[in-house]
Amino acid sequence: MTQETLSTTTADYGLVIDGEVVDSQSGELFDAVDPATEEVIATVAAAQTEDVVDAVDAARDAFPDWKATPPQERGRLLNELARRIREQEDELARLETLDNGKPISHARSDVEVCARYFEYYAGIADKIHGDSIPLTSEYADYTIREPLGVTGQIIPWNLPTNIFGRSVAPALASGNVSVVKPAEQTPLTAVEIGKLALEVGIPAGVLNVVPGFGAEAGAALSSNPDVDGISFTGSVPTGQEVMRTASDNITEVHLELGGKSPNVVFPDADMETALDGAITGIFANAGQVCSAGSRLLVHEDIHDEFVSRLADRASSLSVGPGIDDNDMGPLVSEGHLEKVTRYLEVGRNEVGEPVTGGDVIDRDGYFVEPTIFDGVSNDMRIAQEEIFGPVLSVIPFADEEEAIELANDVNYGLVAGVFTENLGRAHRFARDVRAGQIFINEWFAGGVETPFGGFKDSGFGREKGLAAIDSYTQTKNVCANIEQR
Ligand code: NAI
Ligand code: MG
Q: Active site includes 290?
């Protein structure tokens, strides 16, 4: 697989820096691997510190003009990019599936969501404005919302195209420039979108893409003193490291660090709806989702029937290459398969055999069975630690008070879901559970328009919706003494 546009790079996928597609200065390459076949599908330029410095310098140079570009013009360019992303949906979705493993229909929807982010923030570009503040009559006071400047987006491998749009679109719309570091497991679509941005006329240096490894390219970005803001999505330890590094330069950081989110099913729920929510919550994207519903809290009155029907559904999911649009694709990498396999062992030690699944599938690629452990107690490791795979922990509960207590009894606080037909109960749950998003009667409810981010160890800062504009702007207050002299 090679780049479609003419390129003089050695790598099939180069770095996008200052309007050009280039090799890394060292010439270093890495392989993009298809997790469904374990085959190398392309070579990618591996950005090193000096390449990231170049990208940040290019962005810094591009910033004054981009900031001064009329907001409606920025919006027009982002709408053009959205249009091009949609035009390229077939190719981008295919690349995403080959690189990440996910079912092609899911990859298509991620590409559409990415286009939606650019379109949504394109429409906001010319609606970002400050306030005027009434002081005494001797003063005129107003605020200006200014972009941060050079922003870095460190992107994970689970939803590469989706999170590209989520973190880059609001940055550019509000007048920032970007350097994007995609995950080493899934760099391909980011490079392609970086090239599409150039095609539609987004000026050189405004959007740079530097694929490479976390410890090298990622760290070079978060430690660069010329970066004004970092948006990071990934694991807690890496998020802590990014925050530590960024602190040397007082760089603003926003962290989205995953979760161990509770999905709570009451006896008065519509059972089919709750089963759909439980299945989607943990098996979509093979459970590799920050907002997965990985702890299923089921009321004891319905527990046996619910778990038995859930296990039937889970065991009937088709697992295979995403390109054939199976229900579930492989895990993203060999290393991640090892992590999830270790948790299958932990689960067996903690509660015994799972009610369904529990094994790695004996074939090429990194496939694991959809797995459900029942009778889990909330203090076990499989109830407290993010597995990030198709592994569900079912925890029975007796009443509403206990459900809320269990829901909150975890270090994370990204999302939480409740299935019930009782309106008051649903909103008491929303009031009392400490998480950034509450889903009522639908797992993953919400869209590009709704603010998203964590409480507790799930991080801070908000993406999506209008809230992302707050994350990417800083307020300047202007106060004038207008007394006649
Ligand atoms: P990670 O947090 O190490 O990687 C995420 C991104 O950070 C990648 O682009 C990576 O290259 C970059 N990175 C790594 N080290 C860095 C450093 N020192 N400085 C700057 N950037 C760096 O996650 P990893 O190792 O791929 O996955 C481990 C676990 O993290 C998963 O099993 C899952 O539990 C969690 N995770 C959570 C995600 C979420 O959506 N919140 C996404 C991906 C992983
Ligand atoms: Mg890959």
A: yes
